[in-house]
Amino acid sequence: MNITILGTGFAALTAVKQARKQAPNAEITVIAPKEEFIYLPSLIWIPSGLRKGSDLRINLHNFFNRQRVQFIEATVENVTHGGRTVVTNEGEFHNDGLIIASGGRFIKKLPGIEHAITPCEGIPAAEKIKQRLESMSGGTIAIGFGANPNEPSAMRGGPMFEFLFGIDNLLRKQGRRDKFKLVFFNPAPEPGKRLGPKVPENLVKMMRKKGIETHLGHKMVGFDENTVKTEGGEFHADLILFMPGMTGPAWLPNSDLPKSAGGMIVAGQTCQVEGYQHTFVAGDAGSFPGPDWQAKQAHAADLQATVAAKNLVKSLNGETDFEHFKHELICIVDTLKHGILIKRTEKGTTLLPPCRLLHIAKRAFEWLYLRQYR
Q1: Residue 88 and residue 232: Cα distance in Å, rounded?
Q2: pLDDT for residue 196 is more than 80
């Protein structure tokens, strides 16, 4: 049994662990550009110096050895032959079963988007924010996020609230908050609604309390070097942080795999790629059925990857009693000093007010999570 997994992110690594658990004797191959994992949730702490880039970059060589995984350093270019062949810049690799967990990419189509920093692109982006903040003596900082209009779930807004509140608290700690204007912008009139119906009201109230201005409910038009442009007007900004919506991996348009309107791989509740045998998808690369509040996040990717690995092994063993993944959204919106716990399931939303212990809990979770891969 030869199982191939694409990627080294949250979904991919969970798929590795679960596939090895379900199939102790299988050959498992991982294909990705680098043998490393970047813990993206903690990028929010780089501007303040609470974390360095090296803290969040984990070499996976030892983990792969423990899991008896063959790693191939390559960039995927296509998936062909019904999922059985992965075409890369280093040649073609064949499999009996495939899990696509290579993540998505940000849509960089807005005019002038090169003038904005996209924080979740990785460690260099977060380090650039740190450098820019250190070089500024004052001015306007604009922070916002967008969406994929054809794939409503393909957004990552939570980290932008964290950068917003984190930068506010950092400037206060440094005694220079009065020299800066912070502006939060979003095309939605109620940003954060996916987290729960009461969340937008609470977040905006928190912004007002901290003196953060808002520019909401206007479609994005683009950026200039020092300008954010929307259909509701434009405003000056000396530093722009913007998280655009997401779409599928770069190689997907060349593939025959089924694609959603938003450019992601179509799969069902079992994570099986629609119309493909022994081929599954988990995480940001997939378009899944479910409630409209289910956004892209690491927790969702882990839940999907667990089910994808279990169902793939069942599929290869001729079993058909596939499991369905659970819809659940859990996050701690961190402010650098406090954490706000938000949990949403199909039963409803739990929202806990800012608490110092939740900030500590988020840091403890990071340590526990990374420990298994070090």
Answers
A1: 45
A2: no
Q: Token match 């000056």: residue? A: 236
| Residue pair 325/304 in contact by the 8 Å Cβ criterion | yes
Structure tokens at 248: 């599928």
Three-state DSSP class for residue 190? coil
With beta carbons less than 8 A apart as the criterion, state whether 204 and 339 touch: no
- Span 330-354, pLDDT tens digits: 999 999 999 999 999 888 889 898 9
User: Residue 212, by phi and psi: left (phi above 0), alpha (psi -120 to 50) or beta?
Assistant: beta
**How far apart, in Å, do the first and last CA atoms of the chain sit?**
27
Q: Are strands 328-334 and 339-345 parallel, antiparallel or unpaired?
A: antiparallel
Q: Phi/psi of residue 65, each to 5°?
A: -65, -45
Q: What is the spatial distance between Cα 198 and Cα 206, in angstroms, rounded to a whole number?
A: 13
Please state, in angstroms and rounded to a whole number, the distance separating the CA atoms of residues 217 and 190. 7
Q: Which of 66, 57, 59 is nearest to 28 (CA)?
A: 66
- Residue 287 is inside which H or E element, if any? strand 286-287
pLDDT digits (tens, 9 = 90+) for 34-84: 999 999 999 999 999 999 999 999 999 999 999 999 999 999 999 999 999
Pair 30, 5: CB distance under 8 Å:
yes
Tokens of 149: 């209009």
CA 308 – CA 98 distance, rounded (Å): 10
Whether this model's pTM surpasses 0.85: yes
Residues 81, 98: Cα–Cα separation, whole Å: 12
User: What phi and psi, each to the nearest 5 degrees, are found at residue 331?
Assistant: -155, 155
What domains lie within the chain, and their CATH numbers?
A: 2-50+57-104+248-316 (3.50.50.60), 111-246 (3.50.50.60)
Between 132 and 330, the higher pLDDT residue: 132
Residue 318 near residue 286, CB atoms below 8 Å = no
Show the tokens assigned to 77: 């270019």
- Residue 206's φ and ψ, nearest 5 degrees, are -65, -40
Residue 293 pLDDT greater than 80, yes or no: no
H/E segment holding residue 69: strand 69-73
- And the tokens for 283? 């995480």
Residue whose pair of structure tokens reads 């110092």 in the numeric block:
356
Residue 201 DSSP SS3: helix
